[in-house]
Amino acid sequence: MRIAVVTGDDIRSDIDRLMGLGVPFTNLDTGAELSTVRDRLTHACVYTGAEGIVEALGRGADIVVCGRVTDIALYLGPLIHEFGWAPDDWERLGRATAAAHAVECGGQATGGLYAGGWQDMPGLETLGYPIAEVAEDGSAVVTKTPGSGGRVDVGTVSEQMVYEIHDPANYLTADVTADFSGLTLTQEGPDRVRIGGVTGRPRPATLKVNMGYRAGFVGAAVFTYTWPDASAKARRGLSFLRSRLARAGFVHEDDLVEYIGHNSMWGSRIPPPDDPELPEVVVRYAARCRDAAEARKVFTESVPLYNNGPAGVAGVGTRPPLKELFAIWPCLIPRQLVTQSVRLLEV
Amino acid sequence: MVRVADLAHGRSGDKGDVCNVGLVAYDDAGYAILRRALTAERVKAHFGDLVKGTVDRYEMPGIRALNFVLAGALDGGGTMSLRSDHLGKVMYAWLLRMELDGADA
User: Fold this and answer.
1) Domain ranges of chain B
2) pTM metric for this prediction
3) Do residue B48 and residue A268 have CB atoms under 8 angstroms apart?
4) What is the ipTM metric for this complex?
5) CB 3.0–4.6 Å: which of A82, A87, A178, A265 could bond A97 by disulfide?
6) How many angstroms separate the Cα of A215 from the Cα of each of A167, A323, B77?
């Protein structure tokens, strides 16, 4: 068996040289300079494209193991290998990118998370994963394995096609700029949806780099108050916790209060609970802290709620593990500075 | 009272601190109403302080979809957010809850 290993995505040890060549690695979202987090970096990986996979398959690999490649490249690689598409065949690559996007999140295209009528979705427990039948021209039909649960229809595929995209006319990948703006979906038969109307344009001159850096810790506490006056008790319990934290000299960057079961999803858009007849109210308090010791205070200072706070409390629980935060530093690199290499292992 | 949920279904997800909400209308009439009613400005107002940055709207008429890209929408992004929904998985449902007034429909 031949196993191919595709590397070249990991540029962490090469950052100084690349900056010397004039790559600023400025944060795409904030415009900040890399020097502000450089000493806290944990990784620096380029979202690389399909080239390494195509080379590996061309050299007879049975299994291809990659570093960071785009999800799309996992599909484009085998297709380019099989059909012999040119690396600048933007139209075919664009079409195939739509097929790849349709299936890259598994069951999300076959009825998983379907919001257009979840009650009627059959067989979620045995959901069939999507299959894209891609033709030589890059066009594709989405289907799933016979007898599996779920459904492939225009609705289920539509939801996946709008999932995690920005400008549909410029779906940027390492291999092509796909244009989904004219996307059409047509039901061709049971569990068969044809993708149409997609094209492609030249790939970006830059590749995206995903760097990460250590960004502190989250301390959190969750506790529940019960009837009577659960809402008022919850507010009092919260003020108790905040007061205790202040007395403990608590230093934090930001914090958040959520009432689970009430407004933990849409925050301030839903006012806090105030109905005195509510059977229970669950409070979650979370804070971001630079130091682990500060984050630990959140739980420590919540423990006295069990004996010293308002009546009717439960669920404070045992000490939860501290969550360390790793922030993403998105940035760009000119593609010609990134070279994938393929190593073959015979086993 | 008509809600967006009466006319469309949807899905949302994350890229860093950006959340996108894709709506797919059930039919052409609903798509026409949503295209008219759901301006980027109104959607931004509906999300209020859940979204700190800009809202951009894109259209995919072939599947009757509107895609809203919400910047600064996830409290610093999936790995940093304090929110229980740190990946924006249910942000779409908040948009489905939006009520449309008579002038829209």
Assistant:
1) 2-82+89-104
2) 0.96
3) yes
4) 0.97
5) A178
6) 30, 11, 12
Q: Do B50 and A267 touch (CB under 8 A)?
A: yes
CB of B83 within 8 Å of a chain A CB? The answer is yes
B18 vs A: CB within 8 A:
yes
Suggest the residue from A42, A164, A194 to mutate for an interface test with chain B (most B CBs closer than 10 A). A164
- Chain A residues 94-123 with CB within 8 Å of chain B: 108, 113-117
Strands (E), A228-279: 254-260
pLDDT digits (tens, 9 = 90+) for A27-50: 998 999 999 999 999 999 999 999
Look up residue A315 and give its amino acid: G
Site of tokens 């031949």: A2
Buried b (16+ CB within 10 A) or exposed e, B30-69: bbebbeebbebeebbebbeebbeeebbbbebebbbbbbbb
Residue A271 touches chain B, beta carbons under 8 Å: no
Q: What is the token pair recorded at A180?
A: 């989904």
Per residue in A253-293, pLDDT (tens digit) is 999 999 999 999 999 999 999 999 999 999 999 999 999 99
Query: Between A and B, how many CB-CB pairs are < 8 A?
Result: 132
CB contacts, 8 Å: B47 with chain A: 269
